[in-house]
Structure formats: structure tokens, C-alpha cells
Input
Amino acid sequence: MTPSQVADHIDPLVQEYYRTGSIDLVRMRSLEAVQHPERGAAGPDRADRERGCQLMPRYQKVLWHHDLPDEPVVLYSKIDSGFAVRKVEVYRDGRHEYADRSHSTGTTMLAEKMMPGVDEINQDPDFSATAITAEEFERVWQRAIQGA
Output
């Protein structure tokens, strides 16, 4: 093997495997999937690193500051690969509604777009977001699914 034969995948294969549960063997072998040092690839920039962080599961709690009686006031999300995969909405009356990839209650649904991070959410004065632990999310999730 020569130095020009070393694969430096733009999306590391281990991250792809943990994100999707498999590796796309066709894409893995494509020239578009690897960095080319001879073309001056400088490695991941800040945006790439931030996207990489979004690929790891993360959990967030968002307080929604409003007076709307029929809308949730707290939103809990489990985010994987940048997308919500489980969500709980808590209403003023204590009701918990939830959604995952196969079930939902009430009007709660998973978003089809990538979820913004805590810092981006906190730029809107109507919301206050914080990162939470997996354990905290699981407690809320269990309460929601047991109450449904």
C-alpha cells in the first residue's frame, strides 16, 4: 500500500456505522467519500466538527414561554444524527404527549428537519433550551408512555 492508497473518509466509517447501523459499501469505495491530500484537503473545518457533534445522541429540554392554552410549555427531545428520534411535550395541565419513529399521541410529531442546537434555540427569546442527560430524558419518556 502506498500513501496515496490510504482512505481518509470524509464521514468516518465508525461514525456512519453508529449513526445508521451499517456501512454503505458502495459509497465507502467511491472517490467522493474520501479526502484527497493531493488535492489539498485540509481536514474537517469547524462546521464539519459541529456537524460531527450532532451525529452523537444528545438530549435537550426546551421551555416555551407563551400564554397559548393548547400548546406545550416544555419540549424534551432525544436527537440522533441531528434529527429528533423521540420527543415528549408537556402541557400546563400536566399532560404528557410523545412521539417516536413508530408511535405518537395527541398532536406530537417528530420534525422532518434537523434539530437546532441549544445555542441556536436560545437566540429566540420565546424559548430557553438546556442540554439534559439521557437519564433525565428517560424519566420523562417513561412517564409519558406510561400515562398514554
